[in-house]
């Protein structure tokens, strides 16, 4: 029996999760929500995390009904992500690891998403689409690495959605992407936007500039509604993602797709992916917002796999890093 | 005006040396940003955590010290709430 506690705080969510051999014992989380039209800045986000991390940790232990002495390993997000929030959370992980005399383990955030998705859905060897506010990657496992087949060459798909929400002052509560998704359901007119797939990669910054430029003109002239824009943006962005995912599957002969990351709980993206999967007789795996959106349990789960295969991070090597690619980690826990 | 390097010294007493050492280990790993014009060194003597800064500019020194104090406060609050240290198991 192995129990791992995981700390996550690389963006605007702070979460602490506890995993015992594939079972989520607890997974509380708080989100730093900014007013409409504003993004979250590193220092404010770090302050938010510092103010509630201990409460979230307390909740995680209470809900799991375990004592610190029952824990085998303390996992935390080493990166990638925003520096100040990462440091704030890592400091708490280091301190409790020492207080409780437990080994520490730095986890790659992207690997956390993948391992949590595999655990929850039971997908064996899927082509992974990892889509969030900070990352957009198509990933396939081979020879002890999660290999990046395609990715964004500029901003993440979630960043494109978040920034579009700021232009229209769409609220950030519970998340800008969720509110865009709800508005998109009422969209009727498709407004053509640039479509930028470059081989296996995608680009979103041009689409964002384009829609930022034309949104107010088209809205004030009554050519389209905010709902139409939400709908058109989603259809365009998600079509691009489905296209590169399908190409990666064709390359690898893969019959499984797993969607992870915050944007992954968008039901419209899941529907579009499902259509593509049906055509190829492939199977789609996705999770809901509890596990798609950043959370502590995903770090605990990746930590569990790593700890069981012998990984540990000495305190002096426990520095955080804003850049940490998915394929830098040797996956020693898979064949 | 030729600016001299600025120095700042902080000595933080803890109830015991174990806690001073834990704070040291929690706060040491993340180095100051590359070529940021500021350096910070931590050391522990008995129950005292000592931190020394050297910087080219007051502005950078202030930011670094300020952020360190926030982190130190977080370590102390974590110890208060989830300490004291467990004995070896």
TrEMBL record, chain A:
Cofactor(s) needed: a divalent metal cation
Subcellular location, record wording: Cytoplasm; Nucleus
Keywords: Acyltransferase, Cytoplasm, Metal-binding, Nucleus, Transferase, tRNA processing
Cofactor note: Binds 1 divalent metal cation per subunit.
Gene3D superfamilies tied to this protein: 3.30.420.40
Residues at which a divalent metal cation binds: 109, 113, 130, 294
Binding site for substrate: 130-134, 162, 177, 181, 266
Residue intervals of the Gcp-like domain: 29-300
One Gene Ontology term from the biological process aspect of the record: tRNA threonylcarbamoyladenosine modification
Keyword Nucleotidyltransferase: no
InterPro entries, alphabetized: ATPase_NBD, Gcp-like_dom, KAE1/TsaD, Kae1_archaea_euk, Peptidase_M22_CS
Family: Belongs to the KAE1 / TsaD family.
Family annotation (NCBIfam families): arch_KAE1, gcp_kae1
Protein name per its UniProtKB record: N(6)-L-threonylcarbamoyladenine synthase
The organism of origin for this protein: Pyxicephalus adspersus
TrEMBL record, chain B:
Subcellular location: Cytoplasm; Nucleus
InterPro entries named among the record's database cross-references: CTAG/Pcc1 (IPR015419)
Mitochondrion recorded as keyword: no
Pfam families, per database record: Pcc1
Key word tRNA processing present: yes
UniProt GO BP: tRNA processing; tRNA threonylcarbamoyladenosine metabolic process
Keywords: Cytoplasm, Nucleus, tRNA processing
Origin: domain of life: Eukaryota
One Gene Ontology cellular component annotation held by this UniProt entry: nucleus
Subunit comment: Component of the EKC/KEOPS complex composed of at least GON7, TP53RK, TPRKB, OSGEP and LAGE3; the whole complex dimerizes.
Annotated family: Belongs to the CTAG/PCC1 family.
Functional note: Component of the EKC/KEOPS complex that is required for the formation of a threonylcarbamoyl group on adenosine at position 37 (t(6)A37) in tRNAs that read codons beginning with adenine. The complex is probably involved in the transfer of the threonylcarbamoyl moiety of threonylcarbamoyl-AMP (TC-AMP) to the N6 group of A37. LAGE3 functions as a dimerization module for the complex.
Record protein name field: L antigen family member 3
Native source organism of the sequence: Pyxicephalus adspersus (African bullfrog)
């Amino acid at each position: 029996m192995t129990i791992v506690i995981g700390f996550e705080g690389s963006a605007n969510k702070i979460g602490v999760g506890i995993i015992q051999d594939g079972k989520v014992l607890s997974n509380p989380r708080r989100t730093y929500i900014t007013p409409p039209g504003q993004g979250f800045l590193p220092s404010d986000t770090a302050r938010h995390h510092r103010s509630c991390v201990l409460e979230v940790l307390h909740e995680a232990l209470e809900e799991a009904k375990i004592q610190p002495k029952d824990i085998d390993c303390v996992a935390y997000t080493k990166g990638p992500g925003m520096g100040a929030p990462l440091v704030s959370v890592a400091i708490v992980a280091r301190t409790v690891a020492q207080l409780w005399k437990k080994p520490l383990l730095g986890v790659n955030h992207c690997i956390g998403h993948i391992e949590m998705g595999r655990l929850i859905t039971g997908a064996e060897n899927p082509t992974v689409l990892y889509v969030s506010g900070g990352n957009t990657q198509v990933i396939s496992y081979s020879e002890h690495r999660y290999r990046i087949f395609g990715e964004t060459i500029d901003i993440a798909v979630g960043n494109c959605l978040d920034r579009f929400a700021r232009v229209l002052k769409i609220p950030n509560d519970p998340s800008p992407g969720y509110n865009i998704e709800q508005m998109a359901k009422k969209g009727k007119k498709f407004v053509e936007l640039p479509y930028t797939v470059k081989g296996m990669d995608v680009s979103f910054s041009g689409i964002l500039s384009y829609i930022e430029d034309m949104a107010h003109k088209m809205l004030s002239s009554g050519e389209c509604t905010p709902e139409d824009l939400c709908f058109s943006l989603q259809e365009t962005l998600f079509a691009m993602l489905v296209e590169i995912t399908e190409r990666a599957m064709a390359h690898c002969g893969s019959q499984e797709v797993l969607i992870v990351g915050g944007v992954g709980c968008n039901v419209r993206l899941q529907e579009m992916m499902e259509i593509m999967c049906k055509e190829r007789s492939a199977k789609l795996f996705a999770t809901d917002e509890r596990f798609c959106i950043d959370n502590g349990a995903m770090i605990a789960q990746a930590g569990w796999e790593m700890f069981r295969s012998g990984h540990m991070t000495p305190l002096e090597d426990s520095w955080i890093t804003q850049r940490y690619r998915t394929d830098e980690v040797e996956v020693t826990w898979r064949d | 005006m030729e600016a001299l390097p600025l120095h700042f010294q902080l000595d933080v007493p803890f109830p015991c040396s174990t806690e001073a050492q834990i704070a040291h280990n929690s706060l040491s790993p993340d180095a100051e940003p590359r070529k940021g014009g500021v350096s910070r060194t931590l050391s522990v003597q008995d129950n005292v955590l000592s931190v020394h800064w050297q910087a080219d500019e007051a502005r950078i020194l202030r930011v670094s010290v300020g952020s360190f104090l926030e982190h130190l406060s977080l370590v102390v609050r974590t110890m208060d709430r989830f300490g004291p240290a467990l004995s070896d198991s």
